[in-house]
Design goal:
The chain has about 550 residues and is α+β, with helices and mostly antiparallel strands. Helices cover about 30% and strands about 25% of the residues. The protein is built from ten helices and 20 strands. The strands form four sheets. Strands 2-1-5-4-3-6-7 form a seven-stranded antiparallel sheet, sandwiched between helices. A hairpin with a 2-residue loop joins strand 9 and strand 10. Helix 5 crosses helix 6. The chain is globular and about 70 Å long. The chain starts with 5 loop residues before the first helix and ends in a 9-residue tail after the last helix.
Length: about 550
């Protein structure tokens, strides 16, 4: 089978994606935390026996695009693939061992048939808490990764099918929500096993050799699709930039600069000119940066075929070591999504010069991660963790969607009913923020407001926010989206809080309010259709017309 039958290729391709999706459903059905069950902050994928990502579930590009990088690092520097055994599960959360930040535990399980490694299943889960100086894992005052929580090098958490209970107990001893962590982690292990059994069924049905050759053909097909998309673009060099708000410890926004070079069927992205790594935790490892680049390039090129590691082959990423986008050990990296989003928006801004009719203005460009370390009157403790979304940028032909999570992180909304049922808080407002979308011929999408009353004995609020001052850009004359805000109201007095906040004390009756950024506008606002302006006013999306 040097050239697999195209019909069989399509069938097996769908089957491999179904394996990844079956693993995803397993996590969703068996996990414990709202972070996994509702926010869907996890991802699943299938690798071939050589460790190449051949199929993914429709989850989070920030995870999926870095999984192979992590596996390659583990195999090259820690546990060679030839040392993996049937029944092993290798896990790590170390951003300097191929990971991205400590809350994300990534686990791999090799699959063997007749002594031959035929596949590797992978599940990555964002866990609610990993210890360290802040509940939820986002220590805004961290200046070293050691202050951000438990750091686990690549190790066998399962050996020969048996959980290493002493190691597992050590992990649980170091997190604030051990039972929640246990439930989510065992869900992770179960999903790996579900994927392994599914891969064995495929091997039984089609044969190991056929499965291997089809996997290689799928990678080649994805590479072909990506190279064809790049060839359709004009050769040239294009530059762009975006900014991350300050790190919370030192003043001043941090620049992310990218030079994008298209040459035939290849593309190179260089981040020379980017700010040096920050003292605080807004740094990204090269794995995060590469993942964001892969997302932006695939999205901009409109690749519609199966997305797998073959898409990455024509893409080269370089970044100065010790910069914000290639942080050197032991820089803190818990807030790596904040530069991650701005890496993606900078790359898309460069693509807007190449494809002005296709690329939208900037989406909200941040992740509103926040957590509360809760203490009840009876002494019981909880950790509440959630993440909010915002408005998307306007497209040249349509308005930006309001309050949408998609793209680089692709998270979901956690229903307020679920939060109120599990945590001591009562929501007092949840909706869209008028006037938050950037004005333009096409209007940017609106951000959202979430406001809740704290009901427990005491609590400590932590926030990992951005785009308060580095606003989502508009394109072709469109205005930027409005930035985010965070505040706490106590006894009728409202106190604004910084985007990066740690340990703000809460007491019963406090009102926490957060407003997320809107998307940038596209085109001259004076050219907006009068009917669209009237509809915006009628819907409450804006409070005054363009001419007012």
């Amino acid at each position: 089978m040097s050239r697999p039958d195209p019909v069989l290729l399509e069938i097996v391709s769908a089957a491999l994606v179904s394996v990844a999706e079956e693993m995803s459903v397993t996590v969703w059905r068996t996990s414990r935390s709202t972070t996994v069950r509702e926010l869907l902050d996890y991802s699943t994928a299938v690798f071939d026996g050589q460790g190449r990502n051949v199929a993914q579930a429709a989850r989070m590009p920030v995870h999926l695009n870095s999984m192979e990088l992590c596996l390659q690092h583990i195999a090259a520097h820690h546990i060679p693939l030839d040392d993996w055994r049937d029944g092993d599960v290798i896990v790590t959360n170390d951003p300097y061992c191929g990971g991205q930040h400590l809350p994300d535990f990534i686990a791999f399980r090799p699959v063997f048939r007749d002594g031959e490694r035929i596949a590797i299943t992978c599940v990555l889960i964002h866990h609610v808490d990993v210890g360290g100086g802040a509940a939820g894992g986002y220590n805004a005052q961290a200046v070293e990764v050691f202050q951000e929580g438990l750091r686990l090098p690549p190790v066998r958490i399962v050996r020969d099918g048996r959980m290493q209970e002493d190691l597992f107990a050590t992990i649980l001893q170091n997190v604030r929500e051990p039972e929640t962590f246990r439930g989510d982690f065992l869900s992770q292990i179960a999903a790996l096993d579900v994927g392994a059994r599914a891969m064995l069924r495929l091997a039984d049905r089609y044969g190991v050799q056929a499965l291997t050759e089809i996997g290689a053909a799928l990678l080649d097909h994805a590479e072909h699709e990506m190279r064809a998309a790049l060839r359709a673009l004009p050769d040239g060099t294009y530059e762009a930039e975006d900014f991350v708000d300050g790190d919370g410890l030192e003043e001043g926004n941090k620049r992310i600069a990218v030079t994008l070079t298209i040459a035939g069927d290849t593309i190179a992205l260089d981040f020379a000119g980017t700010a040096d790594q920050a003292r605080g935790p807004i740094n990204a490892t090269l794995a995060t940066t590469t993942s964001a680049v892969y997302y932006a390039v695939i999205a901009a090129c409109g690749v519609t075929g199966t997305v797998n590691a073959g898409c990455y082959r024509p893409i080269t990423v370089t970044a100065p070591e010790g910069s914000l986008v290639n942080a050197a050990f032991p820089a803190p990296v818990s807030m790596r999504m904040l530069p991650g989003h701005k890496i993606a928006t900078a790359v898309l801004r460069a693509f807007a010069q190449v494809l002005p009719d296709r690329i939208p203005a900037s989406y909200y460009g941040t992740t509103f991660n926040h957590a509360v370390n809760i203490r009840h009157a009876d002494g019981r403790r909880q950790v509440y963790f959630d993440s909010e979304l915002g408005g998307w940028g306007a497209h040249p032909e349509r308005d930006g969607p309001n309050g949408l999570a998609a793209g680089f992180h692709n998270g979901q909304n956690t229903p307020v009913e679920m939060i109120e049922a599990l945590f001591p808080m009562r929501f007092t407002r949840y909706g869209l923020v008028p006037d938050s979308g950037g004005a333009g011929r096409m209007r940017g999408g609106l951000g959202i407001v979430r406001e809740w009353e704290f009901l427990a004995e005491s609590g400590l609020l932590n926030a990992s926010f951005d785009a308060f001052t580095s606003l989502p850009y508009g394109l072709d004359g469109g205005a930027p989206g409005r930035g985010g805000t965070l505040s706490v109201t106590r006894d009728g007095i409202t106190t604004p809080l910084a985007a990066k906040t740690i340990g703000h004390a809460l007491r019963p009756g406090d009102i926490v309010r957060m407003e997320t950024p809107g998307g940038g506008g596209h085109g001259d606002p004076a050219l907006r259709d009068s009917t669209a302006q009237a509809a915006d006013l009628a819907d409450g999306y804006v409070t005054k017309g363009v001419s007012e």
